[in-house]
Amino acid sequence: MAHALNPILFAIPVFFATIGIEALVAQWLGRNVYNLADAITSLQFGVLSQVTGLLTKALSVGIYIIIYSHFAVAHWPMGSVIAWVAALILYDFSYYWLHRMGHEVGILWAAHVVHHSSEYYNLTTALRQTSSGALLGWLFYLPMAIIGVPPVMFFAAGLIDLLYQYWVHTELIGKLGWIDNVLVTPSNHRVHHGLNDYCIDRNYGGILIIWDRLFGTFTPEHEGEKIIYGIRKPLHSYNPIWGNLHVYADLARASWRAKGLRNKLLSWFAPPAGWWGVPLAHFEAEHFSRFAAAKPTRTPLIALSLYTLIALLTLIFLGAGEGWQHRYQYAAALLIAVLTRITAAALTPPADAPHAPHDRSAHPNNPRA
Ligand SMILES: [Zn+2]
Ligand SMILES: [Zn+2]
Predict the structure, then answer these.
(1) Would residue 240 count as lying in a domain?
(2) What is the whole-number distance in angstroms between the Cα of residue 107 and the centre of ligand 2?
(3) Taking the model in full, what pTM does it have?
(4) Ligand 2 center to residue 169 CA distance, Å?
(5) SS3 content of the chain, % helix, strand, coil (to 5)
(6) How many folded domains does the chain comprise?
């Protein structure tokens, strides 16, 4: 496999610059859209996702290349603009279904939940990405390999689809008129991240929101109803490792408790709300309070310094790590993971600190978001 430089590396300066601009504009407008602990946590999820992404390339890249090389029924011409545009549209269509299943099937939700676990909605939320998406995500893109989309075209489409979604994670851009009905935009993607009843399982699109309109999952943002962000069964943690595992743990417990082999297996596929047909609990926004209300005293400097160290290590790892022996790759990934855990500890207020009430409106059986 060629050691091409990870293209995300080139986007990182743009990420940091735009996050800084968004935070400054928000402050200037007096909008409470950022929380330092939450933002650092989102960035840590991003780091872990990139680090595990390098380790799981055999799944995300390898399987596609193998299927394309052995089973493709055609080979799309790399020089054709139409082929490139068609590949991007096909990718976006496949992404719609992966994303939709990510909200409707427990085991896929266990991976995707990461992206929804912030209770803030800003550009750092876009970088709050899962570390386990590669485990099953590749399944949804196999048809593209079989019909002959060349790997380079496929990966470029995936990168464009991912990077496109960055800018829509902001509260600072309002409705955009007819564009909100065609493309994924800040307004319609805010709905996707909302806990409000009307927001659940809506607007799955990556670039085109047209898929949601076609398949009946589109809902525009309601005027006059403030969207509350997060997941119905809140994470309540700054630990990005636990943030990647908590729904898998829930599913394992549910499967353990289920009676009979059939139910034990089915419980991994049940929708996040529980079993099929369980009605969605009503979300009571007035009872919601965000995690992070307690102010840790020693936090900002320690956590920021640790995060800077993590970011530098990650840059080295992403830039050069692909050529390393596996044991060094795993050692570096482990070191970065341990540092994210220590940073999380620095962000978490001591147990005796006064906490804001965590009275969540979630129905215990209805942790869907
Ligand atoms: Zn989602
Ligand atoms: Zn999102």
Answers:
(1) yes
(2) 19
(3) 0.91
(4) 6
(5) 60, 0, 40
(6) 1
